[in-house]
Fold Ferric-chelate reductase 1 isoform X2.
Amino acid sequence: MLGVIVSLLALTAGVWAYPSGAPATACLDMTPQHGPSEQTSTPSYELVVSNDTYAGGDEIEVTLRRTGNSAQFRGFFIQARTPGSTDAQGQFTTVDSGTTQTVNCGSVANSQNGVTHTGRSDKTTVTVTWTAPANRVGHIQFRATVVETEAVFWVSEVKSAYVQDPTAGPLPTQATSSGQDIGVTSSGCGSTKGCYQAPTNCAPPACDYFSSWQTSGNSVLFEVSGTSNGFVAVGISDDNMMGSDDIYECVYDSDTGSTTVFSTWSPGKTRPERDSTQGGISAISGSYVNGVVSCKFTRAINDAAAGRRKRQSEKVNNGRFYNLRDNYYVLMSKGSTSGNTISYHATNRVVSSSKVDFQSNTQVTGAGSPDIVKAHGSLMMIAWICTASVGVLMARFFKHLWPEDTLCKEKVWFAIHRAMMITTVVLTIIAFILIMTYNNWLWAFHAGAHAIVGIIVVILALINPLMALARPHPDQPKRFIFNWAHWGVGTVARILGVVAIFLGMDLAALDLPPAATFIMVGWVIWHALAEIVLEIHNCSTSSKAGRAEEMEMDNAAGDTKSKPLRGGNYSGGHNIRKGILGLYVFGMLGFLIALLVYVGLN
């Protein structure tokens, strides 16, 4: 429903913990802090107003009363709000100070913009006087929470008819039921309507982001859809950055089960400011089905009157209204909601590659992934496909190939292993810093399992070198504990690193094509084959004692206290093993380069 979808204070505890009325701390979210759940039945109470329109400074009588012979009530809390806003408007005056008192909501002292009870006495009716703000703020609706007993109360269902602002345009439009799919489709994209789709050429409901526009006369029909449990928004912008944008939020309110559209203006990185007049939009419908939020609405191409009305009293956009005969970038974002209030969307946003002609039927492509996201993905791929794999193979299968040779005063295998694993850790840390910087150091909820697995990989990547620095000497009886711990942490990190890459490839911020996933699968198979072949070769050329030493981490070539590898019973095959390594590295680099090319070109 397009209108006030506000969760009001459940006074379950308010009547009992606050018998003298609702506290000011209940003003903003107006949700119960504890106690039983609210009633879902139709309340037997109503809010009646003395006027159906208002002007600045007008006084209106507001009466909360029971209907018929329903039960009496003990507690209540009333506010006046504009559609889509959580700000209490106007000022209340009590008629009977013995039963009612005002509440100061917000930061303004003595605002008196809420009214509540003074005690637990039973009531059948309460009347108060509301004075409108000096400057009109749009259509007003009164909402009340009503409490009969500690366990019986209603929230958000007791509401008045709208008190109209004659300068604010049409009343909010009722949206369709959120359980009925309104049928947003990609059919006609490029022929009868223009479209933006991410991933490219996707079809709802499989799109992360979808918007379409179809001009008819002096209006444009917009369709918006995306995978989200909260909201999907489309923005019209003169540049490809957030700020000074005309935005339309398609919001699923889990508290009420409704889906609707809010006309908003984005000043920048602060929360978009909603327009109580719904400047220039109409014919709104919305749905939420199986994790997909969808909306349709009609927007005037250039409604000068709507532009003047658009929150002019609060100077939002200074009354401007973008003329869709001009070209603009299309921005889309999505995220979670609390009631009908949207969350901050640090990274879950996309933008068209160029400005859009809304009079055309062009299929618009995305601007591609941000360079910082590409860098993050590329570094992680290099770390966990290349350097980690080579480092592990050297430690597992190549300890005996250069028994007399050293590299940087270390045994060859150890020098290569250490260099590869240090590189892996450094690349992982840099990639982590890059993506956290992109996210403004906020948790990326939209990234789901990828973010969780990625954090685990970073932690494990840091733990293993720290364990290596603190490892006991090979002659120590507890050395085997380190060997198994080092192997176990490293193995889990490698597996999860690959899993994180797979999960990241499906995110809209990177938006890689399916071919990239097949390349990644090809590398996994290539690596598995290499390990199997090396293991078979290892078993056929070494003694049982030699294989037992594969877990050991002897290090410095010049360390006379370090025991030598005892697995000396190798029957040769060193050149074969080197050839397998060379072939593996050649194939691995081919897969890696192909993936990096996809990332770079995306």
